[in-house]
Amino acid sequence: AKQQGKDNFQLYAPEMNKKALEQLVLANHLYKALNRDEFLLHYQPQLNLKTGQIVALEALIRWQHPELGLVSPNQFIPLAEETGLIGAIGEWVLQAACTQNRAWQLAGLPPMRIAVNLSARQFQQKISKTIARVLAETGLDPSYLEVEITESIAMHDVNFTICVLQELQDMGVYIAMDDFGTGYSSLATLRRFPLHTLKVAREFVNDITTDQKDAAIIKSIVALGHGLELNVIAEGVETPEQLKFLHAVKCDGMQGYLFSKPLSANAVTQFCQQQSGS
Ligand code: C2E
Ligand code: CA
Ligand code: CA
């Protein structure tokens, strides 16, 4: 609509239209991005705090748009969800991540799991079949794949979640609860989910060395996780002080800029070779 004089000023919200238009343009670009091969994965190492070894790499999608540059997943994953493109994009991520991990294994890197984030829609659509097919196609052993789902995805339909997670666990795939602590899963529900790992949300890790309450929360999550025989990983670890605290409360693992930012596939290869001293 064109501007029809200043009387319409209240009705006309240019900044909203601009946002809507941007989303539309972005959705249109997103639609073409798969065929144009504009997505790539970066990988962030996850460290076992006891052994000091890299046990997993989290695959994080990046969109290299020819004009817009690097678009953050926080900008386009929600859009991909809304438009339904997440199905195809999510499957691309699974394929690419499993293929890469298989390639690293064949190249002789120490075995690590590859962790893939699943979105809500993806989780609702027969994800275990897709995962079984991708594993068969790529030849990756299921125990080297980990899926990350958030608490809110898991809590949406608890019985359905248990059913899907059980299928995945029966296949031998690892399962992590992402952003743990930000959702509202009850302890009674949590114990019904077949899980391996709790990933403590970054917002709790941030202030553990300055905020007594956040420190108490992390301590309790570690105790809770261990009580349920789960692995507990802290994400977003940025300082040596945070790391020290996590050691002290016997957190099992960590991921964060302190150890490494998300890396390109080539950088991972180099990083791992340095780590293992070859
Ligand atoms: P997430 O799953 O919680 O991933 C962790 C995010 O924290 C990543 O942001 C990572 O780069 C960032 N991060 C890691 N260490 C630190 C740190 O020490 N400090 C700070 N400040 N940040 C840190 P990224 O890559 O921008 O991804 C954002 C979100 O986008 C992810 O959050 C995840 O929800 C979503 N996402 C990324 N890749 C995929 C994907 O392939 N599929 C789906 N469905 N979602 C994805
Ligand atoms: Ca994640
Ligand atoms: Ca997370």
Automatic annotation (TrEMBL):
It comes from the Bacteria. The keyword Flavoprotein does not apply. Keywords: Chromophore, Photoreceptor protein, Receptor, Sensory transduction. The keyword Hydrolase does not apply. Residues 23-276 form the EAL domain. Coiled coil: none annotated. This is EAL domain-containing protein. It comes from Gloeocapsopsis crepidinum LEGE 06123. The chain holds residues 593 to 870 of 895 of the full protein.
